[in-house]
Amino acid sequence: MKPQSKQHFSHDHILLLLQPDEGELINCQACENPISEPFHGCLPCNFHLHDGCLAAPRSLDHPSHPSHPLTLHPTPTYPSRSFTCNACGSQGKAYSFSCARCEFDLHVQCACMPKTTLVGNHPHQLKMIFGSPYKDKTTIFACDVCDGTMDPDQWLYYCGACDFGAHLGCAASNGRPGNDSRSKAAREEEEEENGGANVGWKDSRVEAEKAMFEAERELQEQRIAHQLMLQALDNAGDYVGSSYTRKYYYY
Ligand SMILES: [Zn+2]
Ligand SMILES: [Zn+2]
Ligand SMILES: [Zn+2]
Ligand SMILES: [Zn+2]
Ligand SMILES: [Zn+2]
Ligand SMILES: [Zn+2]
Question: For the region Disordered, what residue ranges are annotated (predicted)?
Fold first, then answer.
């Protein structure tokens, strides 16, 4: 297999396609979760990214925050160097999709979760909703997977017909076998219905690839611009230097 290398705006070096060694514990720089599948990384820097996280776009229009686009930040923008995810309510210290104006922050993995999913113990497709399904926001309700209480401000997967709800994490870890291909088919169907609207949010690979390509091109352009600037500075330096001494001499 030919080694595939990629670039990411958050790291200066080329990232190589790598395979985790057996028993090796590697965490993703972007989402802080362990990596068990082939990934891209920079060994000298101990920098590793899930391929999914690597493909996350630089900017995202997310239906949970329709007023502003979210920007991907490699480090939290707060003095505490951490953020609280508006989707799952837990802290993050790594990459985030953020709206600085509203102090709205999402884990990369929460921002990229599918809009619909299936869980093992429920026959219907669950829809992602961005807060309590009940009108009365003081209603306390529990996750139908783990029985733990749910924060009325946090996101959940929900089936309205059955009033069945699950934490994002509970739904993800109880995914039905074949969940992926089925939910992807469902998502594609939905995409057609929506005429491709809010396609940026869907974890569609094409979009991610496009964004990646854009990011790579941007980086390359920046590098070229930087090089040109250095060259220009060099030339200017020579020129200023010599003319200065020359002038000095003539005085
Ligand atoms: Zn990751
Ligand atoms: Zn590096
Ligand atoms: Zn989160
Ligand atoms: Zn905002
Ligand atoms: Zn739960
Ligand atoms: Zn149901």
Answer: 174-201
